């Protein structure tokens, strides 16, 4: 059994992050020491590694919670997990499109601003952003 | 009318559901073009159409269902769309 500090060093995660994971129901202590400190077991360490790897693949903590539930469900099959992985890829594909559109919009602004020595009040990028904010309805 | 159902292969329950939906669609619409699209092989096309969850159903290029509809829901959507075209 490990203390929270030991678990943090084993998994390269801060104590605060571990407490947050616990608050979010992603890990829970296996017991308590006689002095009342939380104690964790090897399964907690495995769960933390699982969470870190899933985060690296773009899964949010809410999605990771679902994956952890699936992991413990007898009737779940690999197809359930695969579908979630494919849905994550769709989301990432969508974000890449949005980022490319943003990058293209910036390209246009940068190209339009040919004179870097102009005062900021005459900056075409600033002017374009002002126009964008005027044309965007305020909610 | 073109109906595309985006899915991941390998789920026997889904295959059975697709067959039911297809039959209902064929009964509801005469000029039906039914496509079962494997998302893994057509990811860009799925992203183009805004598909984020599986299964999803796109009718004439518009994302209409983001989860598996019932037979009735699909039939009603197709009939309403057909009326709109007439």
Report on this model:
The complex is a heterodimer of chains A (about 140) and B (about 90). Chain A is mainly alpha-helical and about 140 residues long. Chain A contains 6 helices and 2 strands. The termini of chain A are far apart. The mean pLDDT of chain B is about 90. By secondary structure, chain B is α+β, with helices and mostly antiparallel strands. Chain B has a 4-stranded mixed sheet with strand order 2-1-3-4, with helices on one face. Chain B has a single domain (about 1-80), classed as Glutaredoxin (3-Layer(aba) Sandwich), CATH 3.40.30.10. The interface of A and B includes residues 79, 82, 83, 87 and 89 of A.
Write a compact overview of the structure shown.
The complex is a heterodimer of chains A (139) and B (86). By secondary structure, chain A is mainly α.
What is the gyration radius of chain B calculated from CA atoms? 12 Å
Counted by DSSP, the helix tally of chain B is 3
- H-E order of chain A: HHEEHHHH
* Structural category of chain A: mainly alpha
- Helix content bin of chain A: 55-70%
**Strand arrangement across the biggest beta sheet of chain A:** 1-2
Biggest interface, and residues per chain? A-B, 11 and 14 residues
Judging by the overall fold, what is the CATH architecture of chain B?
A: 3-Layer(aba) Sandwich
As a whole number of angstroms, the C-alpha radius of gyration of chain A is: 24 Å
Q: Note poorly predicted spans of chain B.
A: none
Which spans of chain A have pLDDT < 50 for at least 5 consecutive residues?
none
CATH fold topology of the largest domain in chain A: Multidrug-efflux Transporter Regulator, Chain: A, Domain 2
Please bin the fraction of helical residues of chain B: 40-55%
Number of domains of chain B: 1
